[in-house]
Amino acid sequence: MSLLQSAFFRANTSFFVMALSSLLYFMATFLAKKTMIEEDFYYWNVLLTISAISYSFCFLGSEQLFLRFGMVHGKDYHVPKTIIKAMGWSFVLYLFGFSILTNTVLFRVNDYYLTALVGILSASSVFVYNFLRVTKLFTASQIVNNFWKIALFVAVLVAAGSNVKEILYITLTLCTFVGLWSLSVVFRKLKITDKYTGNTKSLFLSFAFSLLVLVLLNNFDRVLIEKVFSKEEFSDYIYLLSLLIMPFSIISSYIGFKEVAELKKRYVKSQFNKKVLLVGVTLSIVFTVWFLTLVCLREYLELPIKFSYFIPCITIVIVKSIYALYSSLFGLKGTARQIQISNLITVISVVFSIVVSYPLIIGQPTLVLYSVAAVWLTRIFVYAYFVRHQPEYQL
């Protein structure tokens, strides 16, 4: 029995690393709510929001080319020089545009140093994370992807409500140095080749637009809340998402993270569909238990949760978990035209959702959650249609 337990633990070490770091992340958010003044808690939630955006979009989608055209050879990863150049220029363009947009349009925090730190940390972590996961070093990839969450927990403990911004600066700076060091180590394992990849411009633009759409999907509600509601209400909304939905978003990311390595080798439609069903049913049960638990603890947690949030939130959780599987297959095998069509439909649904809900959402976060659920449902239906026509393969 002990041998079986040991084997199970070794096989799922990466999951336990992710679970531990996520637990510390949620504890950090809870402590921030309990110890920080309103202005500092707003700053904290802006930090979480721009970090989420950066981790999703810091390479403008060019990391998908890194996954698609790279090849594992032993312990090395061979990747064309053109892909590395595309990633470098994409990051520079992103950091410049993101810093201006964040500090002048989106949030009420004028802090270019913060956005620069978050951008550099995100890029180094995302690059190393993708390298480690395609080489099947799953535990190491999760450590790299989540170490900053552990650092934030320590920062909140040290700050204890005082000198919050200064301590967060120091923490992010140290994390950035660790990220850059990890990047330098990984580059020694890369074999940059002169292999011709053909014209990847169309595919890159498709991935870039696809990730931009994903950023919109994950953040348009936050922008709406930030613009229409007060700082305190924005912070409460992010706090609600962090405790209610974020745990399942992390699980969804892990599902997609494991699935990419599997789909690199083979795709069997019947097995894939069973996995989709299993993930959807399991997470719906777990979410229901989690929701009821938070409702019981809402006074202690100071959590603005209502029973009216259940339907839109469980819809978001189930759809995002299934989307993680579809997205893994789509990222590897989807055509540029399929990606463009799915993105266009999603953008239309986001714009329609904003236009319809904007006049009605004041004081009504439930409507915002329903808008998010509707947009995610639209996207998953489009993906499901295209995945149906994906032929099976085994490499």
Structure commentary:
It is a single chain. This protein has 395 residues and is mainly α. The chain folds into 2 domains: 1-196, no CATH class; 199-395, no CATH class. It contains 16 helices and 5 strands. The chain has helices at 2-11, 13-35, 38-57, 63-69, 81-106, 112-134, 138-159, 164-187, 201-228, 231-244, 246-263, 269-296, 298-301, 310-333, 336-357, 365-388, and strands at residues 71-73, 76-80, 190-193, 266-267, 393-394. The chain has a 3-stranded mixed sheet. It has a two-stranded antiparallel sheet with strand order 4-5. β1 (71-73) and β2 form a beta hairpin. It is globular.
Layout: helices, strands, pairs:
Elements: H1 2-11, H2 13-35, H3 38-57, H4 63-69, E1 71-73, E2 76-80, H5 81-106, H6 112-134, H7 138-159, H8 164-187, E3 190-193, H9 201-228, H10 231-244, H11 246-263, E4 266-267, H12 269-296, H13 298-301, H14 310-333, H15 336-357, H16 365-388, E5 393-394
Parallel strand pairs: 2-3
Antiparallel strand pairs: 1-2, 4-5
Helix pairs in contact: 2-7, 3-6, 3-9, 3-10, 5-6, 6-7, 6-8, 7-8, 9-15, 9-16, 11-14, 12-14, 14-16, 15-16
Protein name: Polysaccharide biosynthesis protein
Transmembrane segments: 7-30, 42-62, 83-106, 112-132, 144-161, 167-187, 199-217, 237-257, 277-301, 307-329, 341-361, 367-386
Keywords: Membrane, Transmembrane, Transmembrane helix
